């Protein structure tokens, strides 16, 4: 009789289906774990790159290079690259975030906040690259000479300085968004690990 029961179990499709479902769940969990690690790595690297630029590269350029004009040219070149990489990094961060969490987690307040932060991470460099930087460059060309050669009250210099502050603000927003998103992601990873 025992031999017959084993035969019936082997022919029963339910255990095979359960095993297939279990293997799928294990694969999904491995993907989530991998995506979560990559997600945190991307957020940390991107936040580090922005912080390094803002607190080391830009101030050093203005402190070391012989003229503010030359330092501005140098920083402008780096900002252009930083913005392009920022859009790509934000897209990858969003994809890894979506892969690292179940769909239901995005409905919770922390998930909604994370999505808002990812949108800011994508929007800030896109606006800088698409709108702000081209306008700043056009203003520099219109000036025809270094910015510091213009009078403090010159309308073009005032407009340039205001737009430059918007550019700095966008970088600050993206940096804060990346740091907060990293913290939320770290907390979520630790919560799932328990």
Could you characterize the architecture of this molecule?
With 194 residues, the chain is mostly helical. It has one domain. It has 5 helices and no strands. It has helices at residues 2-11, 13-64, 68-100, 109-143, 155-193. It starts with a helix and ends with a helix.
Q: Give the DSSP E fraction (strand runs of 2 or more residues).
A: under 5%
| Total domain units | 1
User: What is the oligomeric state here?
Assistant: single chain
Radius of gyration: 25 Å
Number of strands: 0
Helical region count? Answer: 5
The largest sheet is:
none
Roughly what is the average pLDDT, rounded to an integer?
Answer: 87
Roughly how many Å apart are the termini? 45 Å
Element-by-element helix/strand order: HHHHH
Uncertain ranges: none
Secondary-structure content class: mainly alpha
Fraction of residues in helices? over 70%
Q: What is the 3D form?
A: elongated
